[in-house]
Amino acid sequence: MKIICLSVFVFGAIVASAQTTTTEELDKKYEGLSLYFYKNTLRMLNQKENKDFDELIKDIEKMKFLMIDKLKSNFDDSQYRKLKKDYQSESYDEMMTSRFQGKKFDVYIKEKDGRVKGTVILASDSSNLYVLDIIGRVALDKATSLFNSLDNSADIGKRIKDFVSDDDHSKKKKERGVKID
What we know:
This protein is of the alpha+beta class. The protein has one domain. The chain has eight helices and six strands. The chain has helices at about 1-15, 20-30, 40-45, 50-55, 70-75, 75-90, 145-150, 155-175, and strands spanning about 30-40, 60-70, 95-100, 105-110, 115-125, 130-135. A six-stranded antiparallel sheet has the order 1-2-6-5-4-3.
């Protein structure tokens, strides 16, 4: 009996701390960059010991970052609208829509017992879809700052830029008829 109770407890803890089903399905369906960040990883990104960044990430337990090339994946506006509905079907409420530096941002939160338990930030521009699926919360007025912080982080920004550059490099090789491994 104790083993069954322990198993149920462990399974419940795993399910409770998982990213959204919508994000997981999106990651499986479309090829792109997928990165996980935990609280300690996010703290390590703060190489300049910026107090504003520390404040920004203080309530984040875990975060999944997706970047999908919309052109390569044939991801269009109708799929974006469906994606937003899928988050709403998981009890996420739309809290904010805005535009910043050429990107459209949509922010969704999930509350339980009056506290924010999950935050999803979607950012979309003409060529890419970015998803931050967060266990925890981010101040709504700082949602766009989180994207800028990740992009300006030496390590993460480099990986994102390398991903985009590698994809562009692969396209150029294919155009010239070079085999890519």
